[in-house]
Structure formats: C-alpha cells, structure tokens
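During the no-cost extension, the postdoctoral fellow (Dr. R.K.) reprocessed legacy sequence entries with the updated structure-token encoder. One reprocessed record is reproduced below for audit purposes.
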Amino acid sequence: MRKSASLIYHFAERESKARYKRSLLGWFWSFMNPLTTVLVYNFVFGVVYGAKAPLTDNGKAESFGLYLFTGLVVWSVFTGVVNGSMGWLAGVSELRKKIYFPTETALLGGAAANAVQTSLEAVVLITIMIAFANISWTVIFLFVALTLVMLFALGIGFIVSVFNARYRDMQYLMGILLGVAFFAVPIVYTEELLNRQEVPDLVRVFVTWNPPALFVEIARDAMYFLEVPQWNRLLAATVWAVVTFTVGWVFFRSKSMEISEEP
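Re-encoded structure tokens follow.
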C-alpha cells in the first residue's frame, strides 16, 4: 500500500511538472485560464447573444459566464481525466516493459495532478462567488460533485486506456464522442430550454439524467443557486460514479498483464 501511494505521488508530480514545463509563470496559468474563460463566455453569450442567466440566490450574480463556468469546472474534470488516462498509460509504456509496478498507479497519479488543477479552478469560482456575495455552506456539495465526476471519469478512463493501448484509434474516437457529449449536458444552455414543447420527452430525460449532467447540476445547485442538491440526483450520481469506477478498475486489473505486452 505504501509503495503504491509513493508511485501515485511520483506520477502525480511527474504530470504536474510536465504540464508547465519551461513555462515562466507555471501554475499561474491555472488561475488565468478559468478567469479568461469566465470573461470570454460572459461577453459572447451575455453581451453578444444577450443570453439570460437564471436568478441566483441573492439576485446579484446573474452572469451567464459565471453560470457557464460553474458547469465547465465539472466538465473539464471529466474530459481531462478521460482523455488524460490514455496519455498517462501510454507515457509509461516503455517503463512497464522493463520493471513491474501496479500500472493503475500511473492513471491514479495523473488523476491526482488533475485534481490539483481542478482545485485551483474551484478556488477561482469560489472567490468570484464570494465577491458577488453569493456563497453558502452548500459549497461542500461542489467538492462532492467534483469527487464523484473524478471517480466516474477514472472508471471510463481505465477502460478506454486499455483499448487505446491496442488500438490508437480510441483517442480520436473519444475526442469525437466527448465533443458530441458536451451538448448533451446543460452547460451552454439552461435546463429551462428542455421544457419547450418541441423537445421530445426521451431527449429531455436523457439530458437531465445522464451522468455528466447530474454532476454539473449538483455543482450548480451548490454554487450558483445555493441549494442543497436534490436527493435523487445525489443518489443517482453516486451510483453512477461508484459502479463505473469499480467496473473500470476490475476491467483494467484483469487486462494489466496484456497491457504490458502491448508495443
């Protein structure tokens, strides 16, 4: 257990250093990227398109950019871990041919580095909400949402990284699938749009209850609306996260020896 923890730390440190290698400002970009995202989305959707954000708890933070950013913080964890898993495994391909080590530690270490990045983005979001005086104890559910989406993404990452080790087409396929999936989550649009008559019931149910949408809405309830997330959403999200992580972990472990033989 101690050896595995040490390996996870090593791979996390390696990924963190590689992320901003030869960068003068380093982790400063972790703050600048989300801040820029808020400003750009707020201008494009809020000013150019005149999109109206839902009312916040205090009625003072109706910024479409902020509404979007709350969802993007969660979505970036999902895509970052799923896409990263394939790269993290490929990055130790030569090492695992020379010595034996629990291969999953490379993915867990990469996910830990991603968690640090996510924490910085969460700090930016919380700071902005404090500035708008739109903050409550419900902030704890933001970290619940981030933990659940991390587990869910790792479960998928375990599976796709195995297939990518053999068929490199997987990374391109996942890029397409995640691009399409982005619009199946209410990030750049509000849930109210789903209530229009022309939206089929099946589409409405799918967009409301697919796993990434559940994680996003839990975070939004906690940070934007300052509400305790609905218990059925929390339960469904927890089940999705735990089951997916467990299935992915078992599948990855069962294929660990085969992975080591892949070129």
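The chain has a mean pLDDT of 83. The CA atoms of residues 105 and 190 lie 38 Å apart. The remaining legacy entries will be reprocessed before the final report is submitted.
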